[in-house]
Amino acid sequence: MTIPPIGPLSPVGAPTTIAPAAGTGASGGGDFANALSGGLDKLQQLQSTSDNLAVKAATGSLTDAHDYMIASTQASLATQLTVAVRNKAVDAFNEIMRMQA
After folding, report:
1. Shortest CA distance to 79 belongs to which of 68, 87, 90?
2. 29 in Cβ contact with 20 (< 8 Å)
3. Is the pTM of this model over 0.85?
4. Mind giving me the DSSP string for 79-91?
5. Which residue in 25, 56, 75, 84 is deepest, having the highest Cβ count within 10 Å?
6. Which residues contact 20 (CB under 8 A, 6 or more apart)?
7. Is residue 77 a contact partner of residue 84, using CB atoms and an 8 Å limit?
8. Each residue of 11-38: pLDDT tens digit?
9. Are 50 and 68 in contact (CB under 8 A)?
10. How far apart are CA 23 and CA 30, in angstroms?
């Protein structure tokens, strides 16, 4: 039994590169702060939605239980991701502080 060759592969899409905006340098930290703040706001929104659906499920006014399960899982995964990113940031900070001058 022979296996035919696959042939040449073509790229799915053009590769994207992120170029820094003109004039950004050390002052580009505002973008990071905005992204971090936006991420935490989104996490809070996911947790709030999950909490609201949990109350509806407990009171019997929730018609579809899968809506609560989806919202709960999204909030849980977002929390786990946030904690993992925080832990990596703390590890990186500690590593920088151990460097000799």
Report:
1. 87
2. no
3. no
4. HHHHHHHHHHHHH
5. 75
6. 28
7. no
8. 555 455 555 555 555 556 688 889 889 9
9. yes
10. 13
For residues 86 and 39, what is the distance between their CA atoms, to the nearest angstrom?
Answer: 12
The per-residue pLDDT for 75 is 95
d(CA 87, CA 77): 15
> Is 34:76 a contact under the CB 8 Å cutoff?
no
Q: How far apart are CA 26 and CA 32, in angstroms?
A: 11
Q: Which residue has the tokens 């999204």?
A: 74
Q: CB-based burial of residue 50 (10 Å sphere; 0-12 exposed, 13-18 middle, 19+ buried)? A: buried
* pLDDT score for 8: 66
Tokens of 94: 């500690």
Tokens for 8? 């040449």
Residue 47 near residue 79 (C-beta atoms within 8 A): yes
